Amino acid sequence: MTAHERLPGKYDLRVADYAMLAEAGAFGDRRTELIDGDVIVTTPEFRPHAFLRDELHFRLRTRLEGLSSDLFATSGSVALSETTMPQPDIVLTSEPRGEGPIPVLSVALLVEVSSTTVDRDLGLKQRLYAAAGIPEYWIVDLPAATIRQFWSPADGAYGEQREVAFGGDLSAATIPGLIVATTGL
């Protein structure tokens, strides 16, 4: 949808506007994302989602440390463009420190844990991440007990993908040596 096709009275925010509003407390303690200029309030996070995210984060961080990688597993907002700044569940970045959002060029892999947002993560989020050139994207599909991997972004889409069921080992496609066990997730 172009700016001319938007509804009358709608104001598209830029990342700088959104950050200023967030710092001023405009969103309270609600978790939000900026997607194509729109502020999106995310759903509440319940225990299955939180446990899986925290456990996978721990396993990724531990494995990265074992590899002596320059990547760090963290969470936070990632500035994909002037009007889009999502907040993935896990971010592997070479620049975990600093002010503001995580720079998109420092991101090696993004993870979204999906209990109720699978369609959005497979559609909108996948397109946004591929268009931004994120090298690898994982969707942890809780209801299906699988992890969907996407890599080789080009022309706004990922060229390669695979699905791994919980219980096996998951190998990153773009980060040599990064293998995590999914048993117990």
TrEMBL record:
Keywords attached to this entry: Endonuclease, Hydrolase, Nuclease
Q: Would I find Nuclease among this entry's keywords?
A: yes
Query: What does the record give under GO molecular function?
Result: endonuclease activity
Q: List the Pfam families hit by this protein, alphabetically.
A: Uma2
Q: Looking at the keywords, is Nucleus present?
A: no
- The domain of life for this entry's organism is Bacteria
**Which residues belong to any copy of the Putative restriction endonuclease domain?**
28-180
Q: What protein name applies here? A: Uma2 family endonuclease
Source organism of the structure: Sphingomonas corticis
